[in-house]
Structures are given as C-alpha cells and as structure tokens.
Amino acid sequence: MPSTAPSAPVPQGQHEPRPDPQALTSNPDPSQNAPTGVDYTPHPESSLNVSPEREAIVKAITNLYSGSASAEDMRVYAEKAVYDDPWSFCDTRYKIAGQWYGIPKVFASTKTLATEIVKSSADTIAWKQRQEYTPRLVHFSKTVNSLVTCTLDEEGKVKYHKEQWNHKDYSHEGLGKVMKTLNGDYLTGVTRPPKDL
Fold it and tell me: Is the four-CA dihedral 186, 67, 170, 34 of positive or negative sign?
C-alpha cells in the first residue's frame, strides 16, 4: 500500500535539477524578457528536436497538467520520483499522483496552450510551458508561463520534476518548505489516486 506518511529527508543534490533560467530562456530581443532576464513564453517554432521517447515524456506530463489523471501518464515517473513546484513537494510517485488527481477536482478546465523544449541532454529535459487554468468556482481563466525541468534515471523515467514560475530556485528551507511538504504528504487523502500507482 502506498505510503502517505510524512516525508523522510531527500538528498536534494543527488537528482535535483538546478537550471539556469536566464541561459535557457533569455530572448535575443531584450524587450521580450522579464526584468529578471527570463522569457518563459513558449515559442514552439524554436523547440529543440528530440527523440520519440523524450516527446512521449513531455506529452505524458502535459496530459497530466491538462487534467488527464491517467495511470498510464503517471508511469512516466519513477516510483521514488520527486515533484517540486511553488506549492508542493512530493517524494514518491503516489504522492505526485495526489497532485495530478486533484486537478480535475479543482479546475473546470486546464489546457496546455504551447510548449518549447529548450534543453535535452543525457539525463535532463527542460521546456517552457504555457498553461491555461479555469477554476470550478470562479470561471475566470488564468494563463501561467513556467519552466519545467525533469531529470531522468537509467530507464528513462522521471526522477525529479521541477516547475519554476520565475527566475528563482527553491531553497528547501523554512516555513515555505514545511508547507510544500505537508501539501505533498497529505493531499492523497483528499484526491485519492489509485492505490497501485
């Protein structure tokens, strides 16, 4: 049975990607960049060509962002994968599923409008993503541009998924980290993903 117990300390440096947002996303036209020097707006025509296996990873994850809540899409993650965004920190695939299975409960719709792959190396793939969210309670759509970076294990499974909404990386310290971890640890009790994930 998947564990929903509080997280044990995770060796952050072992798998955590530390992308350089300016290097990966800065637009040659400075007027298109944020004051911090990043441009998270996807330009699909500039996307890197990658293998079908890498395309399948991006497709599965954007499906999840778009509310698929699919066990098949979840298999892109290793069993002990980490998910790290401004709101949540999860350290198993089952806890990650708790986040994705909550999407259809919270949002009337969520759509991936565009992606641009900006990095593909031996163990890392990164892309810019534009996502449109429409909450169930307030039918007002909000578009979010972000940088998604995933590190992969030897089998090509995602072992660390990081989403950044601005140029700052995460410190994994203080009250913010505590709240992110609590969200990751206990949301499965609300969203109830399948036990066999």
Answer: negative
